[in-house]
Fold this protein.
Amino acid sequence: MNIIACVKRVPTTDAEVRFKADASGLETDSLPYMISFYDEIALEQAVLTKEALGGEVTALSLGPASGSKEIRECLAKGADKAVILTDDEWMSSDCRATAKRLAAAIGELDAQLVFMGRVATDRDNAAVGPMCATYLGWACVSGVIEMECGEDKGTAKVETENGIETVEFSLPAVITCNKGLNTPRYAGLKGIMAAKKKPLEEQAPAEADGQAVLSTVIAPPARPEGRIVGTGAEAIPALIDALRNEAQVL
Amino acid sequence: MTTLVVFVEHSGGNARRGSLEALGAAHAAGCDCIAVLAGADAAQAAQTLGGSGATKAVVLTGPAEHSADAVASAMAEVVGAQGADGFLAASTHHGQDLAARVAAHLDSVLFSDCTGLTSEGDSLSVQRSWLAGKAIAQLTSTAPAFCCTTRLNVFEVCEGEGSVEVSEHAISAEPKTRVVSIEAKGDSKLDVKEAPVVVSGGRGMKEAEHFSLIEDLAAAFGNAAVGASRAVVDTGWRPHSEQVGQTGKVVAPQLYVAVGISGAIQHLAGMRTSGTIVAINKDAEAPIFKVADYGIVGDALEIVPALAEAVRAVKAEG
Ligand SMILES: Cc1cc2nc3c(=O)[nH]c(=O)nc-3n(C[C@H](O)[C@H](O)[C@H](O)COP(=O)(O)OP(=O)(O)OC[C@H]3O[C@@H](n4cnc5c(N)ncnc54)[C@H](O)[C@@H]3O)c2cc1C
């Protein structure tokens, strides 16, 4: 089976963000990057599925050519090959443009199963998986925490506000992965060595044709200055008073 | 006037609060709303929407009610059939998933988990966070349909009077997925994203068993859910579903109580837009105090039970 794990290069979760003075974007020059947290889970699930069903895993990323270090890591963690759809403006590709361009690449790779992260931790849209599946006309299950998959169908569990739902899906399918689905492996030395020989191809993606128009991006407003109401259990009356009379939330 | 189709989730014949907030957001932005509902009891829930901001409701009918793909394509059809300008949902699990699919059917970009929705003339703009709240972006779209989801607990519910005109629309697409079972969680258990009060515990609780104190404090508030830091989720003390933060859930309750949580940047990202933040931590230098409105320095194991008792006393007074 041809399996794809879509991975995105994003700023690390502890990165300090700096803004362009005219609020037209983020200063991205000195940002440290990582593979988005949930995409690591997607990659692991792709590799686990290949180990169970056989086949080949392709790590697919829309991102800068300079992101090949992060994509090589995917090869070290078990992907057989990688394709970067090179776009230096990848972070501002809106979710529709990303979904469409990934869908086009997925079509060409002749895949049956695509894993993505539930959400990318930079733009927080949680949209590319289901959008991409819709463009492909495929089944999709979002936010999967447990799954089983065979050659032509599978079942997956997702956590919703109502409880845990079990969903049956037919292949081809896009599965977006949530925390808890698996524990991503580390790249061992053997994997790192092997990754050097695996193919990493760069391709030009389809044109972005974005629809989202950014007006401004700024730092969040600072929260009003708070205060320590006291120490130990003796401080509780002061806290209760503040919650009732100042904040009026009690 | 801009008309939006708004996905309304419901349980027990009543609309869920998040959906009412989505209707409220659209109404406050001057939009006309058409509610769309699916599933058992949808017709009953539709009747309760008078005054919520919706003037019409469309109930989806047909055997594929439990298939997200089939439901989404029906909802996109409703947008077309009603001549609406866009689609809106609350950013719950289903709201987010369906909105993405509907947006793709309409070949339109989606803005997720928005914290602001405003109109200028005929065009709508949203405010939403990037990098889990480290940046706030203001966006508009050139899409044929305007699609967005709203963060829970941010927008006001519309409390008006009125009636809704209810019609039906049949789901016709062949389903590719099917929900085969739902393991419902206890009625009393609120989801951490939906709850107006969240009491979260971190590694400072010392042992998994001590989370009974956190649960008891949540119970004292009555309308609270339990949250957790990643540190305690990763050690298996609490389920993943409770994790707050950049790689957990982003929450914005009226009141967020952080107990024994240091306030790492990834945790702050998930809760810094909460209404009021209370921190209880034995370390007066803990970063959580930088975002807290009120802090108590001290031992959580001593403070939390006493606080629960004090909250109960206040609640009992009424
Ligand atoms: C990629 C990535 C993603 C992440 N995503 C998240 C996320 O989504 N959510 C998240 O929460 N974290 C996340 N983290 C982890 C984060 O960096 C912190 O490690 C984590 O939040 C720490 O949890 P904590 O505050 O419970 O524990 P600690 O940092 O160990 O803090 C414990 C606190 O308890 C206090 N304490 C100890 N004993 C007591 C006592 N008796 N009474 C009162 N206070 C006491 C201490 O003073 C301390 O401040 C992420 C990290 C990475 C690298």
Observations:
- The pocket of flavin-adenine dinucleotide is lined by residues A 13, 37; B 202-204, 229-232, 243-248, 260-262, 264, 266-267, 270, 281-283, 286, 299-301 (CB under 6 Å).
